[in-house]
Amino acid sequence: MLFIVVLAIVTFVSILLILPIFSRRNTATLNIKDKYVLITGCDSGFGRETALRLDKMGVCVLATCLTEEGEQSLRSVASEKLKTFQMDVTDPQQIEAVFFKVNQLLEGSSGLWGLVNNAGILTVGPVEWLPLDAYKKVADVNLWGLVDVTKTFLPLIKKAKGRIVIVSSIAGVISPQAFSPYCISKYGVEAFADALRREMRPFEVLVSVIEPGATRTPILNDVLLCARLKQLWDNLSEEKQQEYGKGYLENATKGFRDWCKSASKQVSRVIDAIVLPLTSRSPKKCYVIGQDAWQLKFLSHLPEVLQDFVLREFPFRVVVPSGRDLFEKSSTNGSAH
């Protein structure tokens, strides 16, 4: 068993060393000043910062925000060139309405150079604690909304032979405990991006995925996440609470609080990665950002038994009232078969 594990690690490291030789990209850049780029989820976080970065570069930014307050806040610090639109990515009618306005705005132009799919939400919690609606809500925004927006604006992007940038997550390649709603949506995003990239290549439309690790943005709010965990706990039956034990909630709360506090403050690195596929003549299909993201990316290629072992304490150690670690239990059960 040890030999197989070592062989897997050596093989993977060898591939990492050799791959750059075959995947070198042209570092030449394009001047995208005055080109049109549409960005979703610009109320805060990556979307807002990307909109402001591109605005400073002279790009014609079309920024969509969930709220009117988000629009006003963004316009107050941007140039008059930047246009905002109120759009909920889960509302097909709002998407169509924005498309109609953008189509009119771009009339006589070469089309939409870039689409940055950024809008997203995060929900955490153990599978048994979460209602099905929680899964659906996350998928509606992170996955189905993204698909709808992409399909709607695709004709304008094809006209420009432009770029599609999809802000995914390292959670799209590996699924730690208590992240299942978010990971499901991001796994779907990765699959959609792969298919779209292959389908669009004949039309000279290039698709890139951004896979950031934990980054200090409003979505990583430890107070809100921990309050949500407490709410989920309170909604459990007394029997289920006894099954998990109060220690489980305490460990989970501390784990998520520590995880949020350890998140990278280098938001600009993610913005750099989002902008790069829009300006590069030969963008990469995937940009992994952050030390934790690279570690998890590496881990995702290792045998599952190693993944389970490494992730047994991330974001918290799972212990039930019996005092036995769930990983130890599963290992014992597995050896009994």
TrEMBL record:
InterPro entries from the UniProt entry: NAD(P)-bd_dom_sf, Sc_DH/Rdtase_CS, SDR_fam
GO molecular function: oxidoreductase activity
Superkingdom: Eukaryota
PROSITE patterns for the chain: ADH_SHORT
UniProt-listed GO biological process terms: steroid metabolic process
Cross-referenced Pfam families: adh_short
Entry keywords, A to Z: Oxidoreductase
Record-linked SUPFAM superfamilies: NAD(P)-binding Rossmann-fold domains (SSF51735)
Family membership: Belongs to the short-chain dehydrogenases/reductases (SDR) family.
Name of the protein in its database record: Retinol dehydrogenase 2
Species annotation: Stylophora pistillata
Lineage summary: Eukaryota, Metazoa, Cnidaria, Anthozoa, Hexacorallia
